[in-house]
Amino acid sequence: MKKTSFYLNVAASALFAVGMSTGFQSCAVADNSIGEEDNPEVIVDNGIKTTADFLAAVEKGGLVELAADAQIELTEPLYINVATTIAAPVDNPATLILGEKASFIIQEGFSLLNIKVDATALTEPLIAMNATPAEDHVKNQDVFEDAAVKDYFYLAEGIGIENSMIKNLKNSLVSINGANWAVSSLTLNNNIIQLDNASNNFLAFDKGGNGWAKYVAITGNTIYNISETSNAYFVRCGNASNASKIFGTNNGTATHEFVMSNNTIINTFGAKPFGNNTPNNKATSIIATNNVFVDVFRLNKFIQGNNTKVIENNFIAVEKTASVDGADGIAEIVESVGFKSPTQALDLTAADGGLNLQSTVSAGDGRWIK
């Protein structure tokens, strides 16, 4: 029996539990450290190596353990009907190679841990909500009290991507996919995500429907776009008024929280505001600290005047776009953050994807701070 170490911080440990939604909130700050001295270990005996075995394991759900350096090729959409975590050893991550339609269509909790994703051929969103989920997702009156949103579908376990690399994503990272969906939590931690995205919203809570997440944590990531055209929103809801009602903000008993800390975000996106139709009220808390933004536009359309805010030590620079409009009070405008925007696709075989984005400001993804 082979004993293989997995990278598990507090948030990642929660991904392995059936009740994932309670554990995501531990991931508010990322230090980008990948070590074993404080991490538990998972015993792996002959991790999955073939596509056939992978598909069979995903159908059952739970923890799907891939072998070190495994390469799994997918050509069709993969339906996640049971809460599922796809994980590989931290020192030898596995690779998922996705065909044109090979999205993950989910109606239960879903997470990726220590996975490389080659999305070069993929034309659909990486993760899309199921537009026709099982009956028990419908009419969650015990969760949604407002009449405007009581029939929304509900993802109780959450979505997470941690310690992973994604290459050449042309479409959305997450999409509600033509239905009304509320998500308990969405966590992106310690990833490098490279887009080749001209016009698809990164977090699309608006695609043919409406939705929002109660808790979002985007921490310790590098997210960059190599497309010359950059005409999309980083995050968009279909309807701001209803999005703000999903988790009971009308009665003052619940809040939405969006944490964005220690990220380097480049060219996502330069031609449209950072956010659109997101809730603008005090029940929506936004924490934005220690971020580096290059060629993003109108941060104030996401971090808005009526939100409850914590804003500290953010920087913004311009290379391709002509404006830093909307950055006042959110990010310090600087001439340069010390690196040129990358134009190359991520190299999944190289350390840190082959990038070298050493920063001259004390913010951003910890990989790049001198």
Put the structure in a nutshell.
This protein has helices at 10-15, 51-60, 240-243; strands at 3-4, 42-43, 62-65, 71-74, 78-80, 84-87, 94-98, 104-106, 110-113, 115-118, 127-129, 153-155, 159-162, 165-169, 174-175, 181-189, 192-195, 203-205, 211-219, 222-225, 235-237, 256-261, 264-266, 275-276, 284-289, 292-294, 308-312, 315-317, 332-333. By secondary structure, the chain is mainly beta.
Kindly describe this structure.
- The structure is a single chain.
- The chain has helices at 10-15, 51-60, 240-243; strands at residues 3-4, 42-43, 62-65, 71-74, 78-80, 84-87, 94-98, 104-106, 110-113, 115-118, 127-129, 153-155, 159-162, 165-169, 174-175, 181-189, 192-195, 203-205, 211-219, 222-225, 235-237, 256-261, 264-266, 275-276, 284-289, 292-294, 308-312, 315-317, 332-333.
- It has 370 residues and is mostly beta strands.
- It is 5% helix and 31% strand.
- The chain starts with a strand and ends in a 37-residue tail after the last strand.
- Strands 3, 6, 9, 12, 13, 16, 19, 22, 25 and 27 form a 10-stranded parallel beta sheet that branches. A 10-stranded parallel beta sheet has the order 4-7-10-14-17-20-23-26-28-29, with no helix packed on it. Strands 5-8-11-15-18-21-24 form a 7-stranded parallel beta sheet.
Sum up the structure in keywords.
ten-stranded parallel β-sheet, single chain, 370 residues, mainly beta, disordered N terminus, 29 strands, 5% helix, globular, 3 helices, 31% strand
